[in-house]
Predict the structure.
Amino acid sequence: MGDLVHRSKICIVPEKPTVKQAFVEPFSQPIRTGVHGGVKAWYKATVDEELPTTIDHVVAAIGS
């Protein structure tokens, strides 16, 4: 097996029922996730603020 190159240290903190904050060391600003569009409709969620879903962040990471 190869050498460990990187290990992500992430803390997920619920902000509201549909909003979470992901704190990634060593960055001080959280990544906020929530619901919007079809996901919001699927869950019949009422939200104050539409935010990218966790899946949006995964797709963006794979595409970059």
Summary: Residues 10-63 form one domain.
